[in-house]
Design a protein that fits this description.
Blueprint (H helix, E strand, L loop, with lengths): L8 H20 L3 H7 L3 E6 L4 E4 L1 H7 L3 H4 L10 H17 L3 E9 L5 E10 L6 E9 L1 H35 L6 H15 L7 H9 L10 H4 L7 H7 L2 H9 L10 H5 L20 H15 L12 H10 L7 H10 L4
Antiparallel strand pairs: 1-2, 1-5, 3-4, 4-5
Helix pairs in contact: 7-8, 7-13
Length: 344
């Protein structure tokens, strides 16, 4: 049988030390009210009417209003009219679900009327009674400002990049003045046709880039072939047919331009499989390249060239495109193009 422990001086001292240490820890542990005082986010409790009952220093700072002036005021007073319906809906949802709801981005204003953007979160009040909800408000005004600045910088970079692409296209046209303006015209017309068949506005950027760069591979073709006034022989045609491959090899090294590759690489493919450089057939050809092929041929026939000084008429050009549906062109794309031209 194990004898009971007897109190010894050393054991008494150890127990006293442990009680003292535990008491110090309890005294040092922050209370709920202390935590609210040091909380960086604004906090308040709303009663059943949506009036502010309790606040913390962060909320007073956020709304630029002392606690004695906040008490009893409707939180709705500080919320912009455009966001009040969303806030009330969130409050109702929290009330009936009895669960935490949010965060919701809300436009607010300070007591002085200064604009304020916050993430607002609601939770049921644990005290019950007339207290309906706890509200946490996180200031995101600086975050939004940074976000807006990043968007502005991104748009500026996007425009700079587009300007660079257009510069490349114009540099190519300088080698062959007979095609002056062709690149810009086909880029705009391709975007128009894409929107006609259902592309969304945000989807056409890569398509436009591809149209601008459709002949970039010709930078690798010598002037003796590119600018030859007469017909090309078979050997010269073999070299000329390599320009889509050169375009693909150039653009695939640039991450930003990889989505634009289908037009430069595939715009000489034909619906019946007789095109180049891969001999793709039907829907094997990317849709953007099928769109561009119609636009490219239309603009070429409507423009003067060394081998065709007099452009074709509008009627003759559109009839040619109609006749090439199912051989050179995707028949459905031709239908959409003729509808766009009011020639269906």
């Amino acid at each position: 049988m194990i004898p009971p422990l007897r109190s010894t001086p050393s054991r008494s001292l150890a127990l006293a030390y442990w009680r003292q240490k535990t008491a110090r820890r309890a005294a040092a542990r922050p209370s709920a009210s202390n935590l609210l005082d040091i909380l960086l986010d604004g906090y308040c409790v709303l009663d059943e009417e949506g009036r502010i009952q309790h606040t913390n220093p962060a909320l007073e700072s956020l709304l630029a209003c002392p606690a004695h002036q906040l008490g009893g005021r409707l939180l709705l007073e500080f919320i912009e009219p455009s966001c009040q319906t969303d806030f009330l809906s969130l409050l109702e949802l929290m009330k009936y679900s009895r669960s935490r709801i949010g965060p919701l981005e809300v436009e607010m204003k300070t007591a002085a009327g200064e604009p304020l953007a916050v993430f607002l979160t609601l939770a049921p009040s644990p005290n019950g009674g007339r207290e309906l909800a706890q509200v946490l408000l996180r200031d995101v005004s600086q975050w939004r400002q940074v976000q807006n600045e990043l968007v502005a910088v991104n748009l500026m970079l996007e425009q700079s990049f587009t300007d660079t692409l257009e510069g490349w296209a114009k540099a190519l046209e300088l080698r062959d003045y007979e095609t002056h303006g062709h690149t810009q015209r086909v880029a705009e017309a391709t975007v128009q046709l894409a929107l006609e068949i259902g592309y969304r506005l945000e989807e056409v950027l890569n398509l436009r880039h591809g149209a601008l760069l459709h002949d970039i591979g010709k930078m690798a073709i010598s002037d003796t072939i590119l600018l030859k006034p007469g017909p090309l022989n078979e050997a010269e045609w073999e070299i000329m047919r390599r320009h889509p491959v050169y375009a693909e090899q150039l653009l695939r090294q640039i991450d930003y331009l990889r989505p634009a590759i289908p037009i430069p690489y595939c715009h000489h493919e034909k619906w019946d499989g007789s095109g180049y450089p891969q001999g793709l057939k039907g829907e094997q050809i990317p849709l953007e390249a099928r769109l561009f092929a119609v636009i490219d041929v239309y603009d070429a026939l409507r423009s003067s060239r060394p081998y065709r000084p007099v452009p074709w008429s509008e009627e003759r050009t559109l009839e040619h495109i109609r006749q090439q549906a199912g051989t050179h062109f995707d028949p459905e794309v031709v239908k959409a193009f003729l509808k766009m031209k009011n020639f269906d």
